[in-house]
Specification:
387 residues, alpha/beta, Rossmann fold, Alpha-Beta Plaits, 2 domains, 4-stranded antiparallel sheet, 11 helices, elongated
Length: 387
């Protein structure tokens, strides 16, 4: 395994015609933790990841992996693995054969195929054609492709999509273990609950801009939390807290104590011999905070707009908003990076067709010269018999 690397975005902007999909994005992703990349659909997450992987060129700014552009990385399959959105595999090939294609192209030992399929729980499905796979199994196969070269950096777009509850639980534990091994793990999602249960650090993007970066625990300022406490002797409890310079506010559900945690409040009650009926720490729900961040109601100091008020929209603002998915795909198609066998990008991307198959059309396309080399085992056997 290669070491985990620092991922760094410096002023990345990406425009598709008059549409700004990513706007001066700046962030750092450290190795050794799972970093969640959170934002509503259409916020610019996938475009940002595609810039990092060299699939589209930024209009301005840089995105680096270990201080290098993706194109500068030697043996990329052994350094960076990625799965972008829904997987698109050839339905007529087996899981093992898909991995064989990438292994041969990148010079990875064929023995690594069985190891990787075992890692993602697809050993029993190794010989099955992918056309019969569920979406969850395809997600696991995409992860297998990303892990084939045992890379130190993993970039995953919506990795839990299509998984059943058991599969989601497995994915959470698997990603956390990869981070504990020292890898850099960046996973995007539009689901806050999933990020909460998987990630240690968090990036939040909205309208192509970074609106939060930091630990998940720091998303809400401590001053927004309060301790709610109640007792059958509410008056006695209020007096005891007042003697300890802990002023209270009275609610129907109990007393509100600001700037003191549950341990401090409970200790005061214990010293005064006052029984408590409830004691809890409350603050704004993370979902509420997230919605406030992406709507612009809340501005966090770590966000791009923290040091200045929200910019007034220019007359063409309507055309510089986040690109709809279809418009973005159409606009960026001409800029998609061409990849040769010596610098194979380990990306499973729904916007790219199978790199080893002609696109399916009404009129069959002629086979590429090397096509038969990567056919399933039956064709491999046939080739051997001819020899």
């Amino acid at each position: 395994m290669t070491d985990g690397q620092l991922l760094e975005f410096s002023g990345v902007t990406k425009r598709f015609g008059g549409i700004t999909a990513v706007n001066n994005f700046q962030a750092r992703i450290e190795p050794g933790v799972v970093t969640g990349f959170l934002g509503p659909n259409g916020a610019g997450k996938t475009t940002t990841l595609r810039v990092l992987l060299g699939l589209v060129a930024p209009t301005s700014g840089t995105a680096r992996i270990g201080g290098k552009d993706y194109s500068e990385i030697k043996n990329p399959l052994q350094s960076v693995g990625a799965v972008l959105e829904a997987s698109s595999f050839h339905p007529g090939r087996s899981a093992a054969n898909h991995l064989k294609v990438y292994a041969r192209a990148a010079g990875i030992p064929i023995s690594r195929i069985d190891e990787t399929l075992a890692l993602v729980g697809l050993t029993e499905a190794a010989g099955r054609r992918v056309g019969g796979f569920s979406l969850g199994m395809r997600q696991r196969l995409g992860l297998a492709v990303a892990l084939l070269g045992d890379p130190g950096v993993l970039i995953l777009d919506e990795p839990s999509n299509g998984l059943d509850p058991e599969g989601i639980k497995w994915m959470r534990g698997f990603l956390r273990q990869l981070a504990r091994d020292g890898r850099t793990v960046l996973m995007s999602s539009h689901l806050l609950a999933e990020i909460q249960q998987t990630a240690d650090a968090l990036l939040v993007i909205s309208r192509g801009k970074l609106v939060y970066q930091g630990a998940l625990a720091d998303l809400v300022d401590p001053s927004e939390y309060a301790t709610i406490v109640d007792s059958p002797d509410r008056a006695g409890l209020s007096a005891a807290l007042a003697r300890e310079n802990m002023p209270t506010e009275t609610l129907r559900t109990g007393l509100v104590v600001h700037d003191s945690d549950t341990i401090a409040v409970g200790a005061v009650a214990a010293r005064a011999g006052i029984a408590l009926s409830s004691l809890q720490r409350r603050g704004p729900a993370l979902e509420e905070v997230f919605l406030d961040l992406v709507s612009g109601v809340r501005v966090h100091p770590s966000g791009q707009d923290a040091s200045a008020p929200q910019a007034t929209a220019e007359p063409e603002a309507a055309s510089t908003s986040e690109a709809p998915a279809d418009a973005e795909a159409d606009a960026e198609a001409p800029e998609t990076t061409s990849v040769d066998d010596t610098h194979l990008i380990p990306v499973i991307d729904e916007r790219t067709s199978d790199p080893f198959e002609p696109a399916e059309t009404d009129v069959p396309a002629p086979a590429a010269p090397q096509e038969r080399e990567f056919n399933d085992e039956a064709n491999d056997t046939e080739e051997g018999e001819k020899r």
